[in-house]
Every structure is written in structure tokens, then in C-alpha cells.
Amino acid sequence: MLRFSLRQNNKDSNLSRLFPALIFFLAFFCGFRPGFSADTKYGGELILAATSDPRSFNPILAKETSTTSITQIIFEGLTRTNGLTLAVEPALALSWSVDKSGLVWDFKLRRDVVWFDGERFSADDVIFTFNKLIYNDDIPNSARDIFSIEGQPVKVQKIDEFHVRFILPKKFAPFLRAMSTEILPKHILESSVENGKFNFTWGADSKPSEIIGTGPFMLSQYIPGERIVLRRNPDYYRRDKNGNNLPYMEKIIFIILGNQDTALLKFLDGEIDYYSLRGTDYPLLKPKEKERDFTIYNTGPAFGSNFIVFNQNSGLNPRSNKPYINANKLGWFKDVNFRKAIAHSIDKEMIIQILMNGFGIAQDSAMSPSAGFFYNPDVEAYDYDLDKARDILDESGYKDIDGDGLLEDENGKDIEFSLYTSAQDNQRIQMAAIISNDLSRIGIKVNFLPLEFNNLVQRLTSTFDWDAMIIGLTGGIEPHFGRNVWASSGRLHMWNPEQLSPQTSWERRIDEIFDLAVQELDEKNRKSLYDEWQVIVSKELPLIYTVLSDSMFAVRNKFGNLKLSSFGGAFHNLEEIYIKN
């Protein structure tokens, strides 16, 4: 699913693991080390930068990358996507099969997986995650949008302790890839669900020992505003080709730095191991590659997006019983011609050249070119043309009646709104300044207000207290995983969320497209449907796309087994990476 991006006891269980450990201990001192090879490296740490504290450690509730960048290391799903080949691979599932109808899927689970506290992973955890969390109406989560097919849930049944059956209401083309959604422990969380407290469980104030997953690393320490430390899971089930336990590294440390400029300085000083480049950083970093012992990689256009979105929420704030947006502003924001005028006021080429040093592309489609097959380049594009923007506004009734340089609407109200973006993202701050300046040239006043990232997301998804935002979403290769954004009832349908029924004909059509495409097994027919969706978005502009930077990053030359890719980035195979001598 898409998320907002910021530039993440069985009593005998321990005893049963003692016997192989004892055998290993005796064998070691007899001079035999089973499965070990000379080039295996254990220990060391990876130090990364985080520009914001996590809002929680609960992956079911997460809507922002400040949380998911951490939880995706701690928790796992039944499947995962290979960062290089993009193939679906087993994770907590050992294997799967599907019947001839394409509706009944059987998953055989791994028997060698234990939770961090030593409890054995089983079918009960899978059943609990789907039936008690994802399909629980009292728990707000985006996974429910993904796993609802024409509004119907998937039936999840336990066959035996390590065998789970999923019965789909209709065919669901991306089902295997969707099964990467995180599985959570029943024995830890069941009581919080029964007591109605799950939505407050595993918050940022939780003790690290309370966060129980199955992933390669576990939460060890969190000091707000300072650092997050993950340590190696000694009981992780994956092995290398020689049978050695993974992961190799001992720790992953996220240093909370506040903004990207600070991260750049820390990288140059050797205090962090990875830095995500802005185009303007390239001339500074490139000459220092050999001297500071790192390498810069460019894997092409990023998968995510940057856009302006206007608040079209016509509801009432239950706390004040007043509209979220006053009637005048709501009228402007719902006017597609107003949004088209804004689109023509974005100087994408200037943003690319000045803010990205040429390392970027103009974005017009709801998908990145890096997404491959489902990307549609043939959508409506909006060239930078202030005269055209003025003409569109004039024809739509926005005129400078009193001659003060500001446009007024038909009610005589000045066209003025607040624009928010993340205070930690200097590139988006500068982008907002460029766009605001051009909007002032066509008679629109913009009050720009940078906010802390989690505060920004809170306004966008909970309080709905905002006019317009520059923000972004994570991306991917499967369009359906954006259903939480594009379905009219979706929890991240940010311009007008969780509609009981579609408020416009084009939103209704997008709902139909996503319902049809997810059931279509012919890839060409699926692409045709998703092509139409991208065209609709480009014409209606609920999100006004800006530019897409190249995915560039600098990595210290101390890591072995890096397998870099545009989709997976630098560390998608985290458990296999080791520190070189």
C-alpha cells in the first residue's frame, strides 16, 4: 500500500533450541564448525539517517515512512518481493498453491520461525492478523483497502497449525504480492484488541522489549529525537548458502537528524553510512568519492511522487461542528479549472535544474516510469504557461475586480490559501517557494507554512486542518497497492477521504477500474484499465504532480553483498549484507 514519504511461550521452545546449540558447542571444540565458510563475516553495524521520529511501532496503523522504515525490518509477511528480479518469493510462507478457479489459495507455513520472545509462529497469527486486525472496522488501517475486493473481504481459515487457506470472493491478480503485508503476534496483541486498546498499542513510548516481530532485526533502543537502535535477531530463520545464520550485521542504527542538510554533513564526516542525494549535492560529493571512501549510485527515476493536493473535504469537524474548509475555498479547490491553472503555474524545468541539478524528470502520471509495465506516458501534461493559467482563471470567473493585484472569486473573496510542506525537507520547501512566487504572479496569494513531518501527516489524515500541501507518496510496481489512495472510500484518499459513495463521476469510474483490474488476470487488459486510470487522474488533477528526482544515493565502500536496484535501493537484502575487512 502507498504511504506518505519523507525525503518507515511454549515453555519448551527455548529448551528445544538448546540441543542443536549444545551439539554445535561440542563440535566447535572438537575442531569442526558445520556449515561455516572462511568468507562469512559477522558483526559490525549500519548507521543510517532518519529525519523524523517514528509515530509508533505499529505497522498495521502506520501511514508514514517515518514509522514503516523501522517496522519493515522488524516484521514480515507470508511473501516478499525480490528487490532485483521483482519476483514474489516465500517469506513466512514455505510454499503455496491455488485451485483451478483461482479463488482458493493454500499456504504452507514455515515451521522454524519464532517470535522475538521465543513463541512459535503459526497459522493462528495469520488468522488473527487478517480477521481481528485488518478486517476489524474499529482499527483504521490501509491494508483493508487492499484486501477488499468490490467491498468483500477475503475469508481466512486455519487448516492446521502450519496450513492456512484464503478464499477470495473474486479473482485477485496481485494476491501473492499483497501477501507481503505484515503478520503480527496473536499471543501479544489479542488482549489489546479484545479490550479495545489496539489503536494505542505499540506507540512510540513502548518499551523496545514489547515490540515482538519475526524479522532479521529487533528493536533494542529508542531515544526520541536522537536515535533508534535495532539489534540482530539471533533466532532468525534464514540461512546463507553455507547454512550459516543470517543476518550478518549486529546492529542497525538510525540517527535522528532533523533535516537532510545535517545528514549530508554527518555523511561527509563519516558518521553515517548512507546518504540519499539531492541533485544539488552531486557536485559536492562526486569529487570526494575516493577521498572519503564511498560510491555514488544513480538507479534512475524514483518510484515515489511529489505533488500539490487541495483539501476538498466537504464534511463537518465533529469537535467544532463547522466545515473543515470554508465554502469559498471549497469552491475553488473543487473547481478542476482552478486546479488546471495551478498545474500550468508550476515551472517543472526550473525546479529540476535549480533544485535537482538536472537529476530529475517532470512527472505527469500517477505512476513513475521506473514502475515499468503499468506506467502510462500518454497522459495529459501541463506545460509551464502563466498566460494560459491566467486565461483559465479569467474564464472561470476569477478576476482582479478591485485592482489590488489579487484575484477574487464571484463572491468578491480574495484567492488566498495556506500551503504546507515538511519542515525537514529542504527541497520541498524550496519547491514551495518557487511555486508560491509564480502563483503570486497570476494573482493568487499563498501563505507558506512548513510543519514537522508527523504533524503534517496528522493534519492530512486525522484533523483535516489544512488548505493545500506539497507532499509525496511511496511508489511501486503494482497499481492496486495504491487503492488506499485512489478508491473513494480509501483512508488515504486525501483530497476527500472515506466517502460513503463517490462524490464525482470520475471517482466512481476509478472505483470501477480498480475493482475490475484487480480481478483481471490478462496483463494486457489490466494495463488498459490502469492506463485509463492514469489518464483520468491527469485530467481531473486531484493530485497535481510536480517533478520526480533520480534515485541517487551514496554508500560507504565497507559493505559486502550489496545488490543495488531501482526498486530495492541499496539495502533491500539487509540480512545478507556484511561488513568487509
Automatic annotation (TrEMBL):
<keyword id="KW-0813">Transport</keyword>
<dbReference type="GO" id="GO:0043190">
    <property type="term" value="C:ATP-binding cassette (ABC) transporter complex"/>
</dbReference>
<dbReference type="InterPro" id="IPR030678">
    <property type="entry name" value="Peptide/Ni-bd"/>
</dbReference>
<dbReference type="GO" id="GO:0030288">
    <property type="term" value="C:outer membrane-bounded periplasmic space"/>
</dbReference>
<dbReference type="GO" id="GO:0015833">
    <property type="term" value="P:peptide transport"/>
</dbReference>
<feature type="domain" description="Solute-binding protein family 5">
    <location>
        <begin position="88"/>
        <end position="480"/>
    </location>
</feature>
<comment type="similarity">
    <text>Belongs to the bacterial solute-binding protein 5 family.</text>
</comment>
<keyword id="KW-0732">Signal</keyword>
<protein>
    <submittedName>
        <fullName>ABC transporter substrate-binding protein</fullName>
    </submittedName>
</protein>
<dbReference type="InterPro" id="IPR000914">
    <property type="entry name" value="SBP_5_dom"/>
</dbReference>
<dbReference type="GO" id="GO:1904680">
    <property type="term" value="F:peptide transmembrane transporter activity"/>
</dbReference>
<dbReference type="InterPro" id="IPR039424">
    <property type="entry name" value="SBP_5"/>
</dbReference>
<dbReference type="Pfam" id="PF00496">
    <property type="entry name" value="SBP_bac_5"/>
</dbReference>
